[in-house]
Design brief:
This protein has 499 residues and is an alpha+beta fold. The chain contains 16 helices and 13 strands. Strands 1, 2, 3, 4, 5, 6, 7, 8, 9, 10 and 11 form an 11-stranded mixed β-sheet that branches. Strands 12-13 form a two-stranded parallel ribbon. Strand 7 and strand 8 form a beta hairpin. Helix 9 packs across helix 10, helix 10 packs antiparallel against helix 11 and helix 13 packs parallel to helix 15.
Length: 499
């Protein structure tokens, strides 16, 4: 990519010695691109910004910076009922696909700035474990929609605005920023893109969307073919939570995002405080060794930091990591549950209702791990107050009823689980991956429960590390089915969404 703005500031375009990707930097001696997988995190324990910003302060900082020459838009719902091809809003650009991005419909304003709540489920197994994964987040953006009739700004205008926000508004030193070239695609569109890194943390992606998915196209991105389209769309995505994390420099992304919820769970469940030094080591280990198992983690931690043996045995590290993962997972999942059910999603076995069911049951499971079985509604109430500014009007009574009914169904599934698993073990001493998936899908039994019951009966269950990712992929590939409300269980309400 040719980027005149970066060249004018004396940024140099280099090739990363580790991944081979091209990147832009002010550091003469830098040989790596700044990507987490190539550089790790260097921001933890440091102050790289002028202030610390919680989620509300970060949102305000971003919107106020851009709204002088951008129109502010309120966020869209996280359940995109204006689209048939996706179940959840994964990014702010989803709000404008396919009609605005294709040029059929004019954008609501041009250019725009907004902060869009988004939910991504494919990394659900990693939430709470790696120190950085979330299911729900806010994607802040400043977007422009360029056509032959109207030119707003394109590559240089986008990069200059990104640079000025990071350096002037947040106080990041210019030489700490790297821009990595990496084409992007999603939702039927694609284009050149820059990933923006500070201290090894990806804080934004700047997409220059000028292509549409086309079987006859000549450009290939991630196995799909694309051709040029009439529109040139600037699609930016700044991770609110990641920028806040950068400003705090804490061991995990959860600590600055959910401090009051973490404190509440630790106190109510009589748990020890989370060791930030240990969490830092866990976060770094998951960067350097993706996919490391929970069983292998303690020994690896003690290899990296042998002095910890004076404080913790392997079993202590395993226990503390398990408790911390449960606390962080509960904090993350309850936010996603609140946002999904605020759009009147009913937990079920199909479509978006299935995703809500997964999150509720994973939350209940993790609450049972830390001895907080009855705390899901109190935590949801805390989330309701915490995110009131971004989600001011929610059907609270509906949410409480939906969650309580799902909790009852989950308890029933668990009470019936022993008999169901015994029937499987009578045929074979090992429950296969396929059978584990079936038990989860059809009987509501989570893999941990299946494994525990199987082992108590002298059997064994094969649980993939990325279990929920596989389950979600399986559901995405199924033929769409109509989801109907069961008569008498919930009051209905008409919902209207603008295209």
């Amino acid at each position: 990519m040719e980027i005149q703005f970066l060249s004018s500031l004396k940024f140099e375009r280099k090739k990363c010695v580790k991944c081979g990707g091209y990147f832009w930097t002010l550091q003469k001696d830098r040989v790596t691109c700044g990507d987490t997988s190539c550089d790790g995190y260097s921001f933890i324990g440091k102050r790289l910004t002028n202030n610390r910003y919680d989620h509300n302060e970060m949102r305000d900082l971003f919107i106020n910076f851009f709204k002088e020459d951008h129109t502010f838009l309120k966020p869209y719902p996280v359940v995109p009922r204006w689209r048939e091809d996706v179940l959840l809003v994964n990014a702010s650009i989803y709000d404008f696909q396919p009609h605005v991005t294709s040029g059929i419909v004019k954008p609501p304003a041009n250019p725009i700035v907004m902060s869009q709540p988004s939910i991504r489920m494919l990394d659900v197994d990693l939430v709470g474990e790696t120190g950085r994964h979330l299911t729900s987040f806010e994607m802040m953006c400043h977007d422009s929609f360029n056509s032959s009739k109207e030119k707003i700004y394109w590559i240089d205008g986008t990069v200059s605005r990104s640079f000025e926000f990071l350096t002037k508004a947040m106080g990041v030193k210019p030489d700490l920023i790297t821009y990595k070239e990496n084409p992007w695609s999603g939702g039927g569109n694609g284009g050149d893109a820059l990933e923006v890194f500070v201290g090894g943390l990806e804080v934004a992606t700047l997409v220059f969307m000028d292509m549409k998915e086309d079987p006859e196209g000549t450009v290939e991105i991630e196995g799909l073919k694309y051709s040029k389209m009439d529109m040139q769309i600037v699609d930016t995505g700044y991770g609110l939570e990641r920028l806040s994390w950068l400003s705090y420099g804490t061991s995990t992304i959860y600590d600055p995002l959910y401090p009051e919820i973490i404190r509440f769970l630790l106190d109510r469940c009589h748990l020890e405080d989370i060791d930030s030094r240990l969490m830092h080591l866990i976060t770094e280990t998951h960067i350097n060794e993706p996919g490391i198992s929970a069983n292998d983690l303690p020994a690896r931690i003690l290899e990296i930091a042998p002095k910890l043996i004076e404080k913790y045995a392997e079993e202590d590290i395993f226990r503390k990591a398990r408790e911390a993962k449960a606390v962080y997972t509960i904090a993350d999942h309850t936010r996603s549950i609140l946002f999904m059910l605020a759009d009147y999603v009913i937990p079920s076995n199909v479509k978006v209702g299935y995703l809500a069911r997964i999150l509720i049951r994973r939350t209940l499971r993790n609450l049972s791990i830390i001895g907080g079985k009855d705390l899901i509604i109190p935590v949801l109430e805390m989330q309701r107050k915490k995110f009131y500014r971004i989600l001011p009007d929610i059907p609270w009574d509906f949410i409480v009823k939906a969650v309580n009914e799902e909790a009852e169904k989950y308890e029933t599934a668990l009470s019936n689980g022993e008999a169901v698993i015994s029937r499987y073990l009578s045929k074979s001493n090992t429950i296969s991956e396929k059978d584990v998936a079936y038990l989860y899908d059809s009987h509501g039994l989570d893999p941990e429960t299946i494994e525990r019951i199987a082992e108590s009966k002298g059997g064994h269950a094969i649980i993939p590390v990325n279990f929920h990712k596989l389950i979600l992929s399986m559901h995405e590939n199924r033929t769409a089915r109509t989801e109907k409300m069961r008569s008498g269980e919930f009051d209905t309400r008409m919902l209207y969404y603008d295209d």
